[in-house]
């Protein structure tokens, strides 16, 4: 292959468009800062809570429809050991948005929190909340890394551009426009990016489906021709793993700061709800093209193409099936359009991860712990430095694939097994306290590590039902063990919270051991209730005396 010059020109134009949009949005952000009379953090991190409905829908959808979404769905559909039934992302994301809109948006929006960690800091204090911030920050750094890896691999296939160059250029552009305008830049560039994703993917589909090297996908959906049917199956002994993966994607997304950044930037709770519901529909529509790409690839006689044999699956290039299909099954100009879709998806997710991590560090660590008296100008610099550090860390990890995989697994699992039960308890259960949160956190981590992970060579210590070797000969948990860990963590938080509160309030444990001040909090609540009752009684007595007179 030779360097694809027309493709490079198109990509350069795309990056200039995105950068220009980011600069324009940053100018708008500065105008809003001059008018704003509240906390300056709300302008940078939440756009002054003035993001309109249309932009809100676009930016929330674009955040979830990233490079992993587009490439991952195509990969699962094409993979003969999986199939489309394992390409789970669109449907679980619908569940994420509906649950978020119905249950999580209201308490977060009505309390006017700035980040997802604010309720933890308010209820549990700094020690517990800081421990819980760590997995959220790690997940964001890995989000940056994984999105850049998907773009680097795609550009290498279609443009024959150096993996390193494509990653570094993309990272620099995303960091620059995120630095310039905060959420304003991220949101308005997401609008452009989502439009490009939608148009680019659907333009490629007719060319893929009509290429002369592939059979009609309806013929290979349930029949083996060149490989196993692309629809795939979920065997009875794999149902537990399928359910676990579904729940991981559906509920894990509710514990990401990037989700709440969009919810909290809405002008009202109602708008936040509508944003979630509309984004759910968009995710479904945007998942269809990737399924079709994977289906076409599974229906292709690769020996008749310039790719030749062995097939992408046999070569171990399943993860790059989308760019490979575009490169060898469509005209050159169409494949260039397709790379634009992947680049747009990557950028839309990367900027969200950058701002998400910057929000957590600047608002919950620096502002609330390190320097409570920090000025708005100082906080702006803290946010900028945070964006750069996370961007550089994520970019650096792209050159260490094994490390990226390790941290990615830690981030995804912690979001579901650790952060989700913690968030449910802090928002919806008044009984939860710091003791329960600490035990739930430690229990979740311990159980997850002891459950093992074949992809990183971690052997299981806990043997759940159905433990056996997978197709690669590695011990794998086919039981929904992550869901069990999540439920166990949630129950432990509530149970330990109730027990400790009872012990301290009944005097069975001395006050000097109450490091989280559970007794004081309970007593203060009781005193407030007594005061209110006394005031109501006094008012009632006065009214009766007045009536008697």
Shape: globular
Measured distance between first and last alpha carbons: 101 Å
What CATH calls the topology of the largest domain is: Sodium/glucose cotransporter
Main β-sheet description: 2 strands, antiparallel
Corresponding CATH superfamily of the largest domain: Sodium/glucose cotransporter
Bin the helical content.
over 70%
Oligomer: single chain
The total strand number stands at 2
CATH class of the largest domain: Mainly Alpha
Low-confidence stretches: 524-529
Strand content: under 5%
Secondary-structure-based class equals mainly alpha
- Note the total helix count: 19
CATH architecture label name of the largest domain:
Up-down Bundle
Topology as H/E string? HHHHHHHHHHHHHHHHHEEHH
Care to describe what's here?
This protein is mainly alpha-helical and 549 residues long. It has two domains: 5-30 and 40-397, Sodium/glucose cotransporter; 400-516, no CATH class. The protein has 19 helices and two strands. It has helices spanning 5-35, 40-46, 53-64, 67-78, 90-110, 118-124, 126-158, 163-209, 217-220, 239-252, 257-264, 269-298, 321-329, 332-370, 376-397, 401-428, 434-450, 481-505, 518-548; strands at residues 468-469, 475-476. The chain has a two-stranded antiparallel ribbon with strand order 1-2. Helix 3 (53-64) crosses helix 14 (332-370), helix 7 (126-158) crosses helix 15 and helix 8 (163-209) packs across helix 14 (332-370). It is globular. Residues 524-529 have low confidence and may be disordered.
């Amino acid at each position: 292959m030779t360097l694809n010059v027309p493709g490079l020109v198109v990509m350069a134009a795309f990056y200039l468009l995105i950068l220009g949009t980011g600069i324009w949005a940053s100018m708008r952000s500065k105008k809003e800062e001059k008018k704003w009379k509240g906390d300056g953090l709300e302008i940078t991190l939440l756009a002054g809570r003035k993001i309109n409905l249309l932009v809100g829908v676009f930016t929330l959808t674009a955040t979830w429809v990233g490079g992993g979404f587009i490439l991952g769905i195509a990969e699962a559909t094409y993979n003969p050991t999986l199939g489309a039934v394992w390409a789970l992302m669109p449907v679980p994301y619908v569940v994420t948005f509906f649950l978020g809109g119905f249950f999580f948006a209201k308490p977060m929006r009505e309390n006017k929190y700035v980040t997802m960690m604010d309720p933890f800091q308010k209820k549990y204090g700094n020690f517990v909340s800081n421990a819980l911030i760590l997995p959220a920050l790690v997940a964001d750094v890995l989000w940056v890394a994984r999105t850049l890896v998907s773009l680097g691999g795609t550009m290498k296939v279609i443009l024959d551009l150096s993996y390193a160059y494509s990653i570094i250029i993309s990272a620099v552009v995303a960091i620059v426009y995120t630095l310039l305008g905060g959420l304003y830049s991220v949101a308005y560039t997401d609008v452009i990016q989502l439009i490009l994703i939608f148009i680019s993917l659907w333009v490629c589909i007719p060319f893929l489906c009509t290429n002369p090297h592939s059979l009609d996908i309806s013929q290979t959906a349930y029949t083996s021709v060149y490989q196993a049917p692309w629809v795939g199956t979920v065997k009875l002994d794999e149902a537990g793993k399928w359910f676990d993966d579904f729940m991981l994607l559906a509920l894990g997304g509710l514990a990401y700061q990037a989700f709440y950044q969009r919810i909290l930037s809405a002008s009202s709770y109602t708008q936040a709800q509508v944003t979630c519901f509309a984004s759910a529909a968009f995710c479904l529509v945007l998942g269809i093209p990737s399924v079709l790409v994977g289906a076409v690839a599974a229906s292709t006689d690769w020996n008749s193409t310039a790719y030749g044999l062995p097939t992408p699956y046999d070569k171990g290039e399943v993860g790059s099936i989308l760019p490979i299909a575009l490169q060898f099954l469509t005209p050159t100009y169409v494949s260039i359009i397709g790379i634009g879709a992947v680049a747009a998806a990557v950028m839309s997710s990367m900027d969200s991860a950058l701002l998400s991590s910057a929000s957590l560090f600047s608002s919950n660590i620096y502002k609330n712990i390190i320097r409570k008296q920090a000025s708005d100008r100082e906080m702006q610099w803290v946010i900028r430095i945070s964006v750069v550090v996370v961007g550089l860390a994520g970019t650096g990890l792209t050159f260490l694939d094994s490390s990226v995989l390790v941290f990615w697994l830690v981030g995804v699992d912690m979001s579901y097994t650790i952060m989700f039960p913690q968030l449910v308890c802090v928002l919806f259960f008044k009984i939860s306290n710091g003791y329960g949160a600490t035990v739930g956190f430690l229990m979740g981590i311990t159980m997850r590590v002891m459950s093992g992970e074949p992809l990183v060579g971690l052997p299981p210590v806990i043997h759940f039902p159905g433990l056996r070797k997978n197709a690669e000969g590695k011990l794998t948990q086919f039981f929904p063990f992550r869901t069990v860990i999540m439920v166990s963590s949630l129950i432990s938080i509530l149970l330990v919270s109730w027990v400790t509160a009872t012990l301290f309030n009944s005097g069975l444990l001395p006050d000097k051991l109450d490091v989280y001040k559970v007794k004081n909090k309970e007593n203060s609540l009781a005193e407030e209730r007594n005061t209110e009752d006394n005031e109501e009684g006094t008012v009632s007595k006065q009214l009766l005396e007045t009536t008697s007179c």
